[in-house]
Amino acid sequence: MASRFYCNTSVFTPEEGARHKEMTSKLVSSWKGFVETKDGYKFFFSSKKVSVAELIEWASNERKCCPFFNFDIDSEREGSVLCLQLAGDGGIKPFIRSQFLAP
Predict the structure, then answer these.
(1) 1 in a structural domain
(2) Strand ordering across the sheet containing 40-46
(3) What domain count does the chain have?
(4) pLDDT higher for 60 or 100?
(5) Which pLDDT score, from 0 to 100, does residue 3 have?
(6) DSSP assignment of 24-37, as one string?
(7) Helix, strand or coil for residue 7?
(8) In a domain, 4, yes or no
(9) CB–CB of 6/65 below 8 Å?
(10) What is the CATH classification number for the domain harbouring 62?
(11) Is residue 5 part of a domain?
């Protein structure tokens, strides 16, 4: 059975797509850890490696190609840890794992 979740990268110009891919690689290689939540995953980043502006830029672009995600960005521990939560309807977790947690 095919997933109803898929990334539609045709929404990007070549330049936008390259930038989004670059930002996705940066985020995936920079997270310090993650926890599974009821309806997705929460990723943790050091604010020394990733800025709030970068998380917002990434989420703004990701919602264009993956409009089914719910995003939540917050700051913990006096701003030293940034958090990005990706969530969605039932069945979203396997998609998140395949896109962001697979080796």
Answers:
(1) no
(2) 31-37, 40-46, 81-87, 70-76
(3) 1
(4) 60
(5) 61
(6) HHHHHHHEEEEEEE
(7) coil
(8) no
(9) no
(10) 3.10.28
(11) no
